[in-house]
Amino acid sequence: MERRRLGRTGLRVSVLGFGGSEIGYESASQATVDRLLGSALDAGLNVVDTAECYEKSEELIGAALGARRSQCLIFTKCGHAGGWSRADWRATPLLASIERSLQRLRTDHVDLIQLHSCGLDVLKRGECIRALQTARDRGLARFIGYSGDGAAARYAVECGAFDTLQTSVNVAEQEPLMLTLPLAIEREMGVIAKRPIANAVIAQRSARGGYGSEYWRRLQKLDYEFMKGRDAIATALRFTLSVPGVHTAIVGTARPGRFEENARHLEAGKLPATDMKAIRARWSEVADRSWTGQT
Fold first, then answer.
1. pLDDT of amino acid 128
2. Is residue 73 within 8 Å of residue 13, measured between CB atoms?
């Protein structure tokens, strides 16, 4: 599997990464996660991304990796140790959460620790940033990053404190292509694309709730020509990984075999320039100003 240099971190990351939200929220069994991660690593994937608030995701990943820990890069996120609705951006709780994540992941450090979608006002106060810098100084994390969208993501790039940005990039979420990615490229930040296939709603006939419902509504209006073909998911994934500045795309699943399938989608390489231009042109023509990043 192709690997790219993650900005100034120098880390070599596989273009596909394993996202840990589904295995946590869907209560996947340990046997399933063992199979998922084992086959993904065998296929050349080396990025595993999770968060402390994804239910038991960190514990499942830590147990599944075992002796293969050295074969991958572990990224996790902090800020919602008490659950998504109970954010805490104070330094002491953040550092305690990071140490707890290390225990769950069965490792003495993570390769990247990320603030998990805190708002612009929180970032500007700076305490949460200093907490991540402390974690890095203590050897708990090699690099620090911000995961989020919109104005907060723009500030995270501008402030110069972070090594990486994880943000939503897909055919139904193109705000970052103007808002954050050009500056991230200029600053040599690593860019991690989340939701690269728009929560796989392209083939759905109706909205099913959750994050995907907004993407589904957008896609009905965008009505891309490629959505009528059999390779719609493949085209969507190739679009995200053809966007300048994107180094790796995080795809979450609790279904064995999905990573091998996505890897096959990428065998054709980057999307042709004509196809990229057509998708961007359609977005420029149809997208509403309210179509901002989905946190």
1. 98
2. yes
Distances in Å between the Cα of 74 and the Cα atoms of 62, 230, 295 are 10, 34, 22
> For residue 7, is pLDDT > 90?
yes
pLDDT tops 90 at residue 34: yes
DSSP designation for 177: H
Give me the half-sphere count of Cα atoms (radius 13 Å) on the Cβ side of residue 164: 33
Q: Give the span between the Cα atoms of 46 and 18, in whole angstroms.
A: 8
Q: What share of the chain is helix, strand, coil (3-state, %, to 5)?
A: 50, 15, 35
The helix-helix angle for 258-265 and 232-242 (nearest 10°) equals 70
Helices (H), 145-272: 150-158, 176-179, 181-186, 211-222, 232-242, 258-265
Among 80, 134, 68, residue whose Cα is nearest residue 105: 68
| The CATH number of domain 3-286 is 3.30.230.10 | no
Annotated domain spans of the chain: 3-286
Q: Note whether 271 and 233 are within 8 A (CB).
A: no
